[in-house]
């Protein structure tokens, strides 16, 4: 058995995580694999829509009918303000679950507050007035706890 120092393990883990992030891969241990997509493209504001959501990702848009700036996740995010370059807290209005699992959205950080479940394949054009711009965290449903 090879004795590997803690410093070496951390360096290797950091390098693997950086390579995976650069390749757009999600690591199970990562708190989030996110890609906020927003703002000007080619000098002009671009409208994003449902077709911009990458395969096998949970996507959330700031406007109804999958329009405006959006984020996408593969694992989850305990705090939208901490996970995304542009804070997406309290901004989601429409959702698309392009994964094979249910996702839970929460009104509080750290998966707290009121819960909103999004089934696999669901395309929600507008979450409605009571949920609009209220989500602050989200994760894949574990199958045991209430979502």
Commentary on this structure:
This protein has 147 residues and is α+β, with helices and mostly antiparallel strands. The protein has two domains: 1-29; 31-140, Crystallins (Gamma-B Crystallin, domain 1, Sandwich), CATH 2.60.20. The chain is 15% helix and 29% strand. A hairpin with a 3-residue loop joins strand 3 (58-63) and strand 4 (67-73). The relative contact order is 0.16.
Summarize the structure.
With 147 residues, the chain is an alpha+beta fold. It contains 2 helices and 10 strands; from the N terminus they run αβββββαβββββ. It folds into 2 domains: 1-29; 31-140, Crystallins (Gamma-B Crystallin, domain 1, Sandwich).
Name its key features.
29% strand, 147 residues, four-stranded antiparallel sheet, Gamma-B Crystallin, domain 1, single chain, alpha+beta, globular, 2 helices, disordered N terminus, 2 domains
């Amino acid at each position: 058995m090879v004795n590997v120092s803690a410093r070496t393990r951390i360096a290797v883990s950091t390098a693997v995580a950086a390579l995976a992030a650069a390749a757009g891969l999600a690591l199970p241990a990562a708190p989030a694999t996110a890609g906020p997509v927003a703002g000007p493209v080619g000098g002009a504001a671009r409208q994003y829509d449902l077709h911009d959501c990458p395969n096998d990702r949970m996507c959330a848009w700031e406007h109804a009918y999958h329009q405006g700036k959006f984020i996408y996740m593969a694992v989850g995010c305990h705090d939208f303000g901490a996970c995304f370059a542009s804070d997406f807290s309290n901004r989601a209005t429409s959702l698309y679950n392009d994964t094979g699992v249910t996702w839970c959205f929460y009104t509080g950080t750290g998966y707290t507050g009121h819960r909103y479940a999004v089934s696999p394949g669901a395309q929600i054009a507008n979450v409605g007035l009571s949920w609009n711009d209220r989500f602050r965290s989200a994760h894949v449903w574990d199958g045991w706890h209430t979502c």
